[in-house]
TrEMBL record:
This is Bifunctional protein FolD. The lineage of its organism: Bacteria, Bacillati, Actinomycetota, Actinomycetes, Kitasatosporales. Keywords: Amino-acid biosynthesis, Histidine biosynthesis, Hydrolase, Methionine biosynthesis, Multifunctional enzyme, NADP, One-carbon metabolism, Oxidoreductase, Purine biosynthesis. Gene3D superfamilies: Leucine Dehydrogenase, chain A, domain 1, NAD(P)-binding Rossmann-like Domain. InterPro entries: Aminoacid_DH-like_N_sf, NAD(P)-bd_dom_sf, THF_DH/CycHdrlase, THF_DH/CycHdrlase_cat_dom, THF_DH/CycHdrlase_CS, THF_DH/CycHdrlase_NAD-bd_dom. NADP(+) binds at G170, R171, S172. Its EC number is 1.5.1.5, 3.5.4.9. PROSITE patterns: THF_DHG_CYH_2. Belongs to the tetrahydrofolate dehydrogenase/cyclohydrolase family.
Amino acid sequence: MTQTRAARLMDGTALARRIVEDTARRAAELTERTGTAPCLATVLVGEDPASVTYVRMKQNRCRKAGITSRHVALPATTTTDELVATLRELSADPGVHGILLQHPVGDHIDERAAFEAIAPEKDVDGVTFASFATMSFGLPGFVSCTPGGIVRLLDEYGVDPAGKRAVVVGRSAILGKPVGMLLLARDATVTYCHSRTRDLSAAVREADIVVAAVGRPRLIRGQDVKPGAVVIDAGYNPGNVGDVDFDSAVERASLITPVPGGVGPMTIATLLEQTVTAAGRQLGA
Ligand SMILES: Nc1nc2c(c(=O)[nH]1)N[C@@H](CN(C=O)c1ccc(C(=O)N[C@@H](CCC(=O)O)C(=O)O)cc1)CN2
């Protein structure tokens, strides 16, 4: 008789719904107490269809949670200086409590310069150097949203990273690097893999926790997953395909995030939660 072992799914949709419900309660209390609703400014450069969809999802969720949103749509021809000026204006505007610059912004723009124009107290997407530093040192501040959401999922499913080998595949500024720092802060032994890693399969086979965050469809295959490992798929690829080959990985992992319904919803829930926190601090409540 053959025995099949399939991993438990980590349900990001359900956890995100609970976080958004709690955030909506906090937003209502804050609005009642201060007479001002929390406000998130979303900034989109160009009309990349995926980015348009993500920004719309964020605005819809804001509306449902009692957070107002102000949208700034800029043409694809926007220069770095123009984008920086827009973000500085929003940073100085007392009616805006959080700022989200949708990534990517286009190759002709210096994205880092743009991120750094966001005031740290309004950096609810956790993309500035200041947020990276506070997050890495476990100090008060805002975490990068997808990494923050991943750690919440691990907590929810009772996964303690302490002493575990965590392999992060990808080193982007808003995902790979910060998720590694959060896992390190939880005492995991963290290895980063990237395009110059010599033997990715060998590294992944050692991992108790794998975070796939590279944007390469189905790069991580079941045969490379250590039996019983926790597999987090943070890949966003066209057609809702993750970076993990789910069908093979689910047979080896103990816990795995699906795509869709895993990490994605947690990204937006974290953004909303941090927007209300930012508003509370700025409104002195
Ligand atoms: N400034 C930022 N830019 C980008 C981020 C980010 O966190 N900050 N992350 C990604 C894209 N992203 C948010 O912007 C995002 C992607 C996917 C989801 C999501 O909930 N996906 C669903 C499926 C959605 C669908 O049905 O199409 C899921 O996985 O279940 C949320 C946010 C890049 N840019």
